[in-house]
Amino acid sequence: MNQISPKDAKAGAEAVLATLTYTRPGGPKPAVYMYDRPADVPAIEERNEQHPVAILSARPILGTLSIDVQGFALTHGRTAVRNFDDPEELKRIYDAEVAALVMQRTGARTALVFDHTIRRITGTDANASSRAPVHIVHNDYTLKSGPQRVRDLLPPAAAEQALTRRFAIINVWRSINGPVTDTPLAFADARSVAEADWIATDLVYPERTGEIYRVAFNPAHRWFYVPNLQPDEILLLKTFDSANDGRARYMPHSAFEDPATRSGTAKRQSIESRVLAFF
To answer: pTM of the full predicted structure?
Structure first.
């Protein structure tokens, strides 16, 4: 289990002990099927393994965080969006808000918002457009699928031109229903992840195959979360960077069950927006 360092203890860092689901390494390349899995393909769940870890509060160090160092940071901002379930309102208002935020915080020349995912825990307010939180340690893109996302979204000539320069994929994550006190998001310091920890995993759809990273357990991983995340607090998570110069390139993250959550706490509702940032 990862330990709280003497530096953290001296700073009075708070932590919760929680269980995260990793992926056992070894064997053939795993695959997640987004439709009925072929009968002769082993279920990826067979490689799941749970590990108790200490997840530190990031609040004492918020002012020192950088998406180029740790791979995550926190910023503040309000939104003019009133209905996050309205795709037209997201396109008309939220796209511009998110793009401006990413450019301001990263120094990117341009930013393209290409996806919004609303996550809710099933209940009376469940919506058909919502998805459940992901309780698997993962990263959304890989060395292969990061550049492919650019090719998927831009015309061929523009994509190849864009790929000659540095780009990154940033997830912009916020609550859409009050403070997050149930099923928060944990994220690992990118510096604590070894190259061997990344497990390239196929994401198989009927018409195409993508690729994500699942993650093998390593006791060196240093996990953080932001307790009681407020609606005006926005997490920036780097899920890909084309630069290979020592800065954070990927960052493992996962939803988790906080053992301190009280019964009857409002269920988490959040939106994560994926952004291509071009430098």
So the answer is: 0.91
Picking from 270, 116, 62, the residue whose alpha carbon sits closest to that of residue 178 is 270
Q: Between 249 and 40, whose confidence is greater?
A: 249
Model pLDDT for residues 241-274, shown as the tens digit of each residue? 999 999 999 999 999 999 988 888 889 999 999 9
Q: How far apart are CA 236 and CA 242, in angstroms?
A: 17
Strands (E), 79-197: 110-120, 138-139, 167-175, 185-188
Q: 72-76 and 198-204: which strand pairing?
A: unpaired
Cβ of 7: how many Cβ atoms within 10 Å?
9
Phi/psi at 70 (5° precision): -80, -25
Half-sphere exposure of residue 145: CA atoms within 13 angstroms, side-chain side: 17
| Residue-wise pLDDT tens digits, 82-108 | 999 999 999 999 999 999 999 999 999
CATH of span 26-278: 2.60.120
Residues of the chain above pLDDT 90, percent: 85
Distance CA 227, CA 82 (A): 25
Tokens of 62: 């918020």
